[in-house]
Design brief:
By secondary structure, the protein is of the alpha+beta class. The chain has 2 domains: 131 residues, Ubiquitin-like (UB roll) (Roll), CATH 3.10.20; 85 residues, 2-Layer Sandwich (Alpha-Beta Plaits), CATH 3.30.70. It contains 7 helices and 9 strands. The strands form 3 sheets. Strands 2-1-5-3-4 form a 5-stranded mixed beta sheet, sandwiched between helices. A two-stranded antiparallel sheet has the order 6-9. Strands 7-8 form a two-stranded antiparallel ribbon. A hairpin with a 6-residue loop joins β3 and β4. It is globular, with a radius of gyration of 18 Å. It starts with a strand and ends in a 6-residue tail after the last strand. The chain binds iron/sulfur cluster (2 copies) and FE2/S2 (inorganic) cluster. The site of FE2/S2 (inorganic) cluster has 12 residues, from loops.
Length: 217
């Protein structure tokens, strides 16, 4: 086991694990959206840019999901620099998000709401301008509706589908602001099994994937 100090607490973690994994296992909260428990520091996508920490000896804050624990490491999870980066990352996500929690199936079980509460910020995107995608709902999947303006592009749905089935029914498409997750020319036969699998629905941290009304029995 590796021994490290996090916010003046001594914790232990298995060799090779990430700082994020070590902290979460010790009950230390670090906002994150794109990390899967199976991720190693080498293969974590580091897409959400939320899990910043400061580590003694590092010149700048780093993403906790991509740094491997080391004996004697000293980690700080709540410095001003860390919080500023996390608030900026959250506001950028909210700048392309339709915040309509009352009509969202994820309301009260949403990672964005939890992170906003943890960081002490509202679900506004100021000072950024809010820009939304069209159309608001993409119905190309045979049984699921995808809501691009609720999607944080964490990629968890794409990855859990691939982990479970060897090949993902979902994929990223487009670039920059136009990036979306969807069902593009995947195997139509396999898609019929999506309702019994539901891995993507379960892992999605927001309300971006929804069983189309009438398809859920
Ligand atoms: S995904 Fe979360 S923040 Fe967005 S509308 Fe739904 S509940 Fe609100
Ligand atoms: S649909 Fe959900 S799980 Fe997939 S990328 Fe968007 S927010 Fe993440
Ligand atoms: S969890 Fe580390 S960048 Fe998303």
């Amino acid at each position: 086991m590796i021994t490290l100090t996090v916010d003046d607490r001594t914790i232990e973690a298995p060799e090779g694990s990430s700082v994020l994994s070590a902290c979460l296992a010790a009950g230390i909260t670090i906002p994150h959206l794109c990390w899967l428990e199976a991720d190693t520091p080498a293969d974590a996508p580091a897409a959400c840019r939320l899990c910043f920490v400061e580590i003694d000896g590092f010149r700048e804050p780093v993403t906790a999901c991509t740094v491997t624990v080391e004996n004697g490491m000293t980690v700080h999870t709540g410095t001003d620099a860390v919080r500023n980066l996390q608030k900026t990352a959250l506001k950028l996500l909210l700048s392309v998000h339709r915040v309509d929690c009352k009509h969202c199936p994820a309301n009260k079980a949403c990672a964005l709401q939890d992170i906003a509460r943890f960081l002490g910020v509202g679900l506004t995107c100021k000072p950024f301008e809010r820009v939304l995608k069209e159309p608001d709902v993409d119905p190309r999947h045979p049984v699921l509706d995808y809501h691009p303006n609720r999607c944080v592009l964490c990629g968890l749905c794409v990855r859990v589908c691939r982990h479970r089935h060897g090949k993902s029914q979902l994929s990223f498409a487009g670039r920059g602001f136009e990036t979306v997750v969807g069902y593009f020319d995947a195997d139509p036969g396999a898609a019929a099994d999506c309702l019994s699998c539901r891995a993507c629905l379960d892992v999605c941290p927001t309300g971006a994937l929804v069983v189309r009304t009438g398809d859920d029995g």
